[in-house]
Amino acid sequence: MDWQRLQKALALEAEHGFCNLQGRQARFAEFVSEVLQDAPPEQVRGPDRRKWQELGARYGDYDQLAAGARAHLVQDTRRWLYQLRRSLEPPPEPRIPPASELDKGLQYLKGVGPIIAEKLARLGLLTVRDLLLYLPYEHISPAVQVLIKDLAVGERATVIATVKACTCFTSPKNQSLTILDLKVSDRSGWLKVSRFFAGRQFTNRGWQEKIKREYQRGATIAISGQVRQKPLWHYDWRSRTGGAE
């Protein structure tokens, strides 16, 4: 059964105003009548099988129909054949994402590498799946927020503090490393916090000045990370007063 050829004939007849178009071997109505009066495909059963044969007989009288009746018959046939063909097609197989991609080690991701992967491993992030399921800053529980005086070495904690001083500079020992140092305080004490940016793009003077404006004196920031004596080494921080990470 050539579904496409039959649908193409019906479409051409509609485009030409239902004039019983002359084809290479027969007129439109004769061609459709012959196709539909033949035995339908085996999968076509019940009411659809009867309608198939009834439509074939109706196209035998196509020349005697008024223009409106021809249009109605052609459009009804097109619609019914489309729905019938869809019902006979097997359902598509569900796409299952390859588990291997989710279980890929982070060191193999572009832009990560073994050094960054080692740092992520300290947070329990070993695979792509771990990274996708990692809760970002916005989901840190307020219960882990502590005062500076209560910080304990080796534990992860979140501190809400005010910036007292900010410096951002390129390391004299490594021209591809930029260091951001902040001195922050809350009502219980003060703390020095450092963040490292690896890459030539961070050594640009304009970028460094922008960072210093974002963490200017008086800005309130949230700092989250693991305490390594003092200063606090952190994984994430951001401004709470209009600045960005």
Short summary:
The chain contains eight helices and six strands; from the N terminus they run αααααααβββαβββ. It is α+β, with helices and mostly antiparallel strands and about 240 residues long. It starts with a helix and ends in a 6-residue tail after the last strand.
Straight-line distance between termini? 63 Å
CATH class of the largest domain: Mainly Beta
From the spread of the alpha carbons, the general shape counts as rod-shaped
Number of helices: 8
Do you know the CATH architecture of the largest domain?
Answer: Beta Barrel
The helicity comes to 25-40%
Query: CATH homologous superfamily of the largest domain, by name?
Result: Nucleic acid-binding proteins
Oligomer status:
single chain
- Strand content range: 15-25%
The tally of domains stands at 3
How are the strands ordered across the major sheet?
5-3-2-1-4-6
Tell me about the biggest sheet? Answer: 6 strands, mixed
Q: Structural class of the secondary elements? A: alpha+beta
The number of E-state strands comes to 6
Order of helices and strands: HHHHHHHEEEHEEE
Average residue pLDDT: 80
Q: Which fold name is given in CATH as the topology of the largest domain?
A: OB fold (Dihydrolipoamide Acetyltransferase, E2P)
Low confidence ranges = 239-245
Q: Roughly how many Å is the radius of gyration? A: 36 Å
